[in-house]
Amino acid sequence: MSVPAPRGLRGAAFLFGLLALIPILAVTVAALFGDFDTVRKLADTVLWRYTWTTLVLVILVAAGSAIIGTGTAWLVTMTEFRGRKWLEIALALPFAFPAYVLAYAYTDVLDHPGVVQTTLREITGWGPRDYWFPEIRSLGGAALMLTLVLYPYVYLLARAAFLQQSATSYLAARSLGRTAWGAFMTTSLPLARPAIVGGVLLAVMETIADFGTVSFFAVQTFATGIYRSWISFADRGAAAQLALCLLAFALFIALLERIQRGRARQENSARRQEVLSRVQLTGGNARWAGIACMVPVLLGFVLPVIILASMAMRSEQNLFSVRYLLFLQNSLTFASAAAVVTVIGAVLIAVSHRMAPSRLTSLTGHVARVGYAVPGGVIAVGLMVPFAALDNAIDAFAEARFGLDTGLLFTGSIWLLVAAYTIRFLAAALNGYEAGLTQLPRNLDNAARTLGARPASLLGRLYIPALLPFLGTSLLIVFVDVMKELPATLIMRPFNMDTLAIQAHRLAADERLEGAAVPSLVLVGIGLLPVILLCRSMGRRRS
Hints:
543 residues; mainly alpha; MetI-like fold; 2 domains; two-stranded parallel ribbon; 23 helices
């Protein structure tokens, strides 16, 4: 039986869902009722370039992530070769890197003054115009950086799908004369397709939300266009109109991802009938399989860490200086506050639906998840527009009625920035907590209710204590995501409160890449925490 949720609990959960809707509604209203002069100028100059580069970037990252993620997942799941066990875990390590940090590392090595081209010129005696070298600061370079850090989305989901498949279909295809490759293409791959597509769509959502990488490489996408309209042109209407275009595309991708997630659950609902034994690879096949799995790990984690460490040692940045300690303090303050508020919201929404499931509580959960599909720059514009107007209205009222100058009460405040983080990452916390809540038998709710437990007691004495590990994981995931978030922080941070991510971005924008390596390494180290938890979980499932 369901437990009637207190009105206060339902109301608080509804407020968090409403919070997630504010930037979407604000961007839509500001875009439709704003001045279209700037957008007309953009349409005549760079709007089509924004559209084209964004689409090409999405296609390249989607294709690269699908190929690398699916191929490596198949190799470590269905075959046996030397080094497979540690590669199975190591393939998730690039998750720790923000794409813009990877861009800083590879630019320092591959750009014209970098060690690779400098060594090439010294060995051959060539001049700068005597040879051709791939340009890292390009659309292709941005796609490569994003692919190297986003393919784990596809890898993890595809690996889970392959592990859940029955061996019956694959063995039947082999018995009918199919080769191992043919059986994979005709049986295993189609069965895992919903999970693979879901991973690709998650990578696509992260791609369209990226600002740091494309900004550093001077690739003009909608994300950079929004920031330029807001900061350089000081045109909120144009920023809102560009944000609305990006928002529509992001919500479409989110809808596709949700459909694919439902299909994946349907495909995997049946129990495995027969466990597929791994194919033992020998000789050249084993070597090529090991190389194929090792290359993404080397390019996406090992080499960047070595490069950043070398850059940091050459830099003059002191991580323990007062200035850097202030950056670290700001980052920790924002991340801690956002993690706590976001997890509280996730608990309220999940528990409200658990106690008294209804269309309203279900809709609240769906709306709360929308924020993950909305890029940070869009959320920033969607919050700044209405709250700046509210600040102006309050100031005008106080000035006219009491002769007081209230200034900015909301705009530029920590809590408005925390609200942006909450909207952006509420889905991550909600998914993490609900994963534990679904494992809690409903008989416990019913037993507690028959013993006279009130809803508040259920929350404080059952739901929270029993699911502390899931709460901790959700807190850690949101904390790390906020530490790495760049576009929303750039637009909304309080005056003179920069973070490690902003410091890394500023130094890289000034071509001080060695200095940018210091805060970047800290971000990577913090990003390793959820990856380590993920790897431990993978190890337990494998054993």
